[in-house]
Each structure stands twice: as structure tokens, then as C-alpha cells.
Specification:
globular; D-amino Acid Aminotransferase, Chain A, domain 1; eight-stranded antiparallel sheet; five-stranded parallel sheet; alpha+beta; single chain; 33% helix; Rossmann fold; binds ligand MV4; Dna Ligase, domain 1; 444 residues
Length: 444
């Protein structure tokens, strides 16, 4: 196993990785910015290296500072967590060039799946369902409009280099096509190295369902079931659960088996997620693949009993998967609420000093957080401050534990989204599983 792992992240996920390393007897190094000097993950790591000022570009996103910290501390692997360096193929490549193992898939696989059009074409060639769409990037407006007319409106214009909803434009009719097409092009050119866009038939009010995958370096690939992630705002997920409520066993089997088939075909390694849209009629369509550990991985851990961060470390170290698919047993239901430091009505960031804190506990309640008494939530980073995860024998029990846990949670000194979750947990549509990607804007 690795002797020492450097964690190129902060907050709750840095702490989550420290916990997995400690259980495996691996030493830990964290890199941090000047505002994070007193953060919990910095205190709990074996070693720390300050790599720069608060601005992410000058610390958590600075490849050479992170690699220098790994070299001076003799770390033999780097865990990128999610966000920051997690899906940067240049970073993964730079690690391997320095003789440091990147804990994730190969740089070439990250690059390939980062191209959403290529990923779509691979899925299509394997017979994985995709929405009708263009096989090539379209740069000319006339060709783009005639293609849109061919597949029929509404359509969605997507950036090949995008993903996670960045650089997308929905177009409802031919009359607004021109404006949207040029806006999509301009945004894509400004945001990504790659200005290519492609067109898909727009699927209305779908659910977002994703499949968790694990693969070793010896050709073994399994799935850990699915997660329902439709409750989101501006492509930021708020609440996730596993299993997906109301999904029938036949669809679940198809969804998980096409996800395994897709990742096997590209010789994927480590953990990853295959995202699908599920339409009103129960049809599913591949949209993209994420090559990192995700924020919502705990709901899968709670229903599968598998520590996915420990698995990432073992898989990156070349170990074989010890289980076959039939050995994976799912138990009960799990839900996660992402608590952010934002005002719960308008989502304005609410950084500041936490004066009083009580973290909930008890049977079936897990809180992944780097909060501690008298800590400060910085305005420089993502506002996620805690993930409350509950588990129960069924959805009802997981939900009642969630309501109970949120009632117990005390955070004084800043605004948080806890009141919003308490309201969602009383909403009839949510309770009866009537959710899709437009749920939250209807609810608000
Ligand atoms: C779509 C779609 C409808 N039709 N593609 C958003 C994030 C990115 N992963 C793809 N996304 C979508 N692609 C077609 N052809 C609707 C969305 C979408 C969405 C998907 C998942 C979760 C939330 C969403 C919110 C708005 C739009």
C-alpha cells in the first residue's frame, strides 16, 4: 500500500480522505491556503504544507505548488477529492510524470470522458441509449438549424468541453435558434479550451439518475447501484438518495448493466459515475460520465456497506476487486442533504464565524463535515459545509431520521440551507417521490 498520500483538497472531503487513510495505516499530507491554516482537515493530517494565498488559482489549483509539496514530503500518491484537480487530465499526467500515483483513472480516460461528444459517440456505438443528436461538432449556423429541424424542437445545444450543465442552451423554437446558437458558441469559447458544440433533442422534465461504478486494473468492473439526484438548482445538487424511488427492477438492471458495459469498453479504472436522464415513460438516455469520487458517494456507501474512498486507494494501488457483482448486497435506503452556508431563500452566500455548533447523531445518522466550534466559513470556496446522510430500512425511515437530524442541528452565526430542507421534507410531492429536475424551481 502507499506509504504517504497527499490530499489536494479541503473541507469535508479532505477530512473524509484522511479518515480512510488512517484506517489503512497510510500517512497523510494536506496542502492548504493561508486562510485554511486552522481548518480541521489541516489539524487532523499528519503533515501540512501551505501552498499559497486563498484564491484557488494560486493554491488549490496550482499544479506546480501541489507537486512540489508532494516531492518535499515524499508522498507516493495524490488524492484529488472532487472539484479542483479531480478531473484535470494535465494534473493526472503531471503526477505520473513525477512518479506520483494519481488516485483516479488514467489521464487519457479523464481526457476522453471530458469530451462529452466523444463520450456520447462511444455510448451510441455500444448500443447504450442516447437522445437523438449530432455525431460531430457543428460550427455553422445554417447546418445547425437544419439539423435541429431534422430532429425536431425543443433541442439543447451542449459544449463538448462542458459537462455538469456548463455551456448549455435550450432552444424551444426555430425563431430563437440563431441567438441561442451564437450565445452558446461565445460562452463555450470563453469558458473552455474547446469551442465545439453539438445538438441533442431536449428531453423535458427528466429525472437525473446515475450509476456508481468500481473497476480494478485487472479487468474487473462492478456497479454499486444507482442514485437519484434530480433535486438541484443551477446544476448544483441539493439532495440525493439511493435507491432511486419508483425505479422498477427491470429498468434498474438495464441501467446498471449498460453503465458497466460502457466503462468496461474503455478499460476504465478506479471509481466513476455514469449519468442518465430518465424520461416520463421510463426510458433512459446516457448523458455523461464523471471520472471522480462524487460529493454524494456516502448514500451509496450507506446502502452497500462499502467504503468507497478506501476502495479508491486500493484500486489505485493495483489491488484486485475482492467482490463479484453477486457479492454486493444492498440494504435499506439512504438520503443526503447538502447543507450550504447560504441564505435559504435567495441562495446568497453567508460566510462568517460559527459561534455555536451542535452536530446531530444517533442511529442511522452520519454527518460528513469539517465544521468545528468557533470555525470560520470562508467566502473563497464552495459554500458546502456539511452533508447530513441518513440510512433506514426503507425510504420512510431514512426520511424520518433526516427530519429528526435536521431538527437537532445547531449552527449559529451564519445562515444555512437547513430550513429549506426541513420544508422539502414536508412537501407532499417530494414525500411521494414525484421529483424531476424541475422539482426545486416549482417548490421554490
Ligand atoms: C439534457 C437535458 C435534457 N435533454 N440533455 C444538465 C447537466 C448535464 N449533465 C446535462 N444536463 C441536461 N441535459 C438533453 N438532451 C436536461 C439536462 C438538465 C439536467 C440534467 C440533470 C440534472 C439537472 C438538470 C437540470 C437542467 C437540465
Amino acid at each position: 500500500m502507499f506509504y504517504k498520500v497527499l490530499i489536494a483538497n479541503r473541507g469535508e472531503i479532505a477530512l473524509r480522505i484522511i479518515r480512510a487513510c488512517k484506517e489503512l495505516g497510510i500517512r497523510t499530507v494536506v496542502v492548504h491556503s493561508t486562510v485554511d491554516s486552522n481548518a480541521l482537515h489541516v489539524r487532523l493530517a499528519d503533515e501540512k504544507v501551505c501552498i499559497g494565498p486563498p484564491e484557488p488559482n494560486r493554491s488549490y489549483l496550482n499544479i506546480s505548488s501541489i507537486l512540489s509539496a508532494a516531492e518535499i514530503t515524499d508522498a507516493d500518491a495524490i488524492h484529488p477529492g472532487y472539484g479542483f484537480m479531480a478531473e484535470n487530465p494535465d494534473f493526472a499526467e503531471a503526477c505520473e510524470k513525477c512518479g506520483i500515483r494519481f488516485i483516479g483513472p488514467e489521464a487519457e480516460i479523464i481526457r476522453l470522458m471530458g469530451d462529452k461528444l466523444k463520450a456520447r459517440n462511444i455510448a451510441k456505438s455500444l448500443g447504450v441509449p442516447v437522445l437523438p443528436g449530432s455525431e460531430k461538432g457543428i460550427s455553422d449556423e445554417k447546418n445547425a438549424l437544419s439539423f435541429a429541424n431534422e430532429i425536431g424542437f425543443p433541442v439543447i445545444i451542449k459544449a463538448s468541453g462542458g459537462g455538469g450543465g456548463r455551456g448549455m442552451k435550450i432552444v424551444h423554437s426555430p425563431s430563437s435558434f440563431s441567438n441561442s446558437f451564437h450565445a452558446a458558441k461565445a460562452e463555450t469559447a470563453a469558458a473552455f479550451n474547446n469551442d465545439e458544440v453539438y445538438i441533442e433533442k431536449y428531453c423535458e422534465s427528466p429525472r437525473h439518475v446515475e450509476v456508481q461504478i468500481m473497476a480494478d486494473r485487472h479487468g474487473n468492473t462492478i456497479h454499486l447501484g444507482e442514485r437519484e439526484c434530480s433535486i438541484q438548482r443551477r446544476h448544483q445538487k441539493l439532495l440525493e438518495e439511493s435507491p432511486c424511488p419508483g425505479l422498477d427492477d427491470k429498468t434498474r438492471k438495464e441501467l446498471t448493466s449498460v453503465a458497466v458495459k460502457l466503462v468496461k469498453s474503455i478499460n476504465y479504472t478506479n471509481v466513476g459515475t455514469v449519468e442518465f436522464l430518465l424520461d416520463k415513460d421510463g426510458n433512459f438516455f446516457f448523458i455523461e460520465m464523471n471520472t471522480r469520487i462524487q460529493v454524494e458517494h456516502p448514500v451509496t456507501e450507506m446502502v452497500s456497506g462499502i467504503d468507497m474512498i478506501k476502495k479508491q486507494l486500493k484500486l489505485a494501488n493495483g489491488e484486485r476487486l475482492k467482490y463479484k457483482q453477486k457479492d454486493i448486497k444492498f440494504s435499506g435506503h439512504s438520503i443526503e442533504c447538502r447543507i450550504t452556508a447560504e441564505d435559504p431563500k435567495r441562495f446568497v452566500p453567508s460566510p462568517g464565524h460559527i459561534k455555536n455548533l451542535h452536530i446531530p447523531g444517533g442511529l442511522g445518522v452520519r454527518v460528513d463535515s469539517a465544521l468545528h466550534n468557533s470555525c470560520t466559513v470562508s467566502s473563497y470556496y464552495d459554500p458546502l459545509i456539511a452533508k447530513v446522510i441518513t440510512h433506514g430500512r426503507d425510504r420512510e425511515e431514512a426520511l424520518s431520521r433526516m427530519s429528526r437530524a435536521l431538527e437537532e442541528f445547531i449552527i449559529e452565526g451564519i445562515f444555512t440551507t437547513i430550513p429549506l430542507y426541513k420544508n422539502i421534507l414536508n412537501d407532499h410531492d417530494f414525500l411521494s417521490g414525484r421529483i424531476d429536475v424541475e422539482y426545486l424551481s416549482r417548490f421554490l
